[in-house]
């Protein structure tokens, strides 16, 4: 009996040690040490010059960047592994012509709850119509918003994303099923491994992509964020008929995107056959980070053309 108690205590302590393994910490300067100084200065400037705005939805706090003074509005929706400031290069390039709103999602597990918060932010800012730019999961959310609130959306950009499909939802269901049992440090280590093996090489070895995603694993994102975002991708919906709704669309994709396979990219184009298409060569999953000039030109041209 005593042996069993000792064994149980030892196993309990071992599990406690596994689950309490610390999240890596590093300074901003160290994380971004390999990124060009002018790029680091741009990100630092966005974070420093204006405090994040807040929108309170019950007990849930939304945070978002609000920059620019243009007459039209761009709502930026980030992907699964990011925050609102991932769009800092687009905001800097477009803020003279557009009011730029870049949200960071709280850990909410459905597209409906994300939608409610976004609508609350737009109502708080008194915006009745916006252009939506979404990448990856943000592009998925943008399609959902176009279907539920078409009168809100003037134009939509679907970047490195996918329509509702079995492949993505199956992966997301696995995340929802297994991630709750995985220690937080292991999830974050998996993000770093995925970055080094897939996302960093596909981006042309962009040090900005590498640094930004590493920073997300140093406390910017937590386990609950990953699980909630996986749950959102489990939610299917009927893709909106953008032609019938009168919403012009631009599809942005990369020919070597490791997260969105060619078959899924083709499905997106078939889902929205009248959408304009911009294909980046060898740009990976984050062309707005590692190819910002070309990306910004594509956005500006699409959003300012009738």
How many DSSP helices? Answer: 14
**What structural category arises from helix and sheet content?**
alpha/beta
Count of strand segments: 8
Label the CATH architecture. 3-Layer(aba) Sandwich
In angstroms, what is the radius of gyration? 20 Å
Give the tally of structural domains: 1
Largest sheet: 8 strands, mixed
Strand content of the residues, in percent?
A: 15-25%
**Given the C-alpha coordinates, what overall shape results?**
globular
Strand order of the largest sheet: 1-2-4-3-5-6-7-8
Helicity, in percent? 40-55%
Low-confidence stretches: 1-19
CATH topology: Rossmann fold
Describe the structure.
- The chain is an alpha/beta fold and 306 residues long.
- The protein has a single domain, classed as Alpha/Beta hydrolase fold, catalytic domain (Rossmann fold).
- The protein is 51% helix and 16% strand.
- An eight-stranded mixed beta sheet has the order 1-2-4-3-5-6-7-8, sandwiched between helices.
- β5 (130-135), α6 (137-148) and β6 (153-159) form a beta-alpha-beta unit.
- α7 (166-178) packs antiparallel against α10.
- The longest helix has 19 residues, at 184-202.
- It is globular and about 50 Å long.
- The N and C termini lie far apart (79 Å).
Summed up:
The protein has helices at about 1-20, 30, 35-50, 90-95, 110-125, 135-150, 165-180, 185-200, 205-220, 225-235, 240-245, 260-270, 285-290, 290-305; strands at about 55, 60-65, 70-75, 100-105, 130-135, 155-160, 250-255, 275-280. With about 300 residues, it is an alpha/beta fold. It has a single domain (about 25-305), classed as Rossmann fold, CATH 3.40.50.
């Amino acid at each position: 009996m005593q042996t069993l108690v000792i064994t149980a205590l030892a196993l309990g302590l071992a599990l406690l040690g596994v689950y309490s393994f610390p999240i890596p910490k590093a300074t901003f300067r160290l994380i971004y040490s390999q990124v060009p100084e002018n790029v680091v200065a741009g990100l630092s400037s966005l974070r420093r010059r204006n405090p994040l705005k807040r929108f309170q939805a019950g007990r849930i706090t939304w945070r978002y960047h609000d920059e620019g003074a243009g007459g039209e509005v761009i709502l930026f929706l980030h992907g699964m592994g990011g925050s609102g400031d991932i769009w800092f290069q687009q905001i800097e390039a477009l803020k003279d012509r557009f009011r730029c709103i870049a949200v960071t999602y709280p850990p909410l597990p459905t597209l409906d709850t994300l939608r409610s918060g976004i609508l609350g932010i737009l109502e708080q800012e008194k915006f009745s119509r916006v252009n939506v730019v979404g990448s990856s999961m943000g592009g998925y959310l943008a399609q959902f918003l176009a279907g539920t609130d078409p009168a809100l959306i003037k134009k939509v950009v679907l970047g490195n994303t996918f329509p509702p499909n079995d492949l993505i939802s199956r992966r997301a269901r696995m995340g929802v099923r297994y991630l709750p049992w995985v220690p937080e440090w292991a999830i974050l280590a998996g993000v770093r491994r995925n970055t080094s093996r897939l996302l960093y090489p596909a981006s042309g070895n962009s040090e900005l992509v590498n640094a930004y995603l590493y920073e997300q694993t140093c406390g910017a994102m937590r386990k609950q964020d990953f699980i909630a975002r996986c749950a959102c991708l489990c939610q299917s919906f009927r893709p909106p008929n953008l032609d019938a709704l009168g919403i012009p669309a631009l599809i942005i994709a990369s020919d070597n995107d490791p997260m969105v396979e060619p078959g899924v990219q083709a499905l997106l184009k078939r889902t929205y056959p009248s959408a304009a298409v911009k294909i980046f060569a060898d740009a990976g999953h984050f062309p707005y980070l590692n190819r910002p000039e070309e990306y910004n030109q594509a956005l500006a041209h699409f959003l300012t053309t009738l």
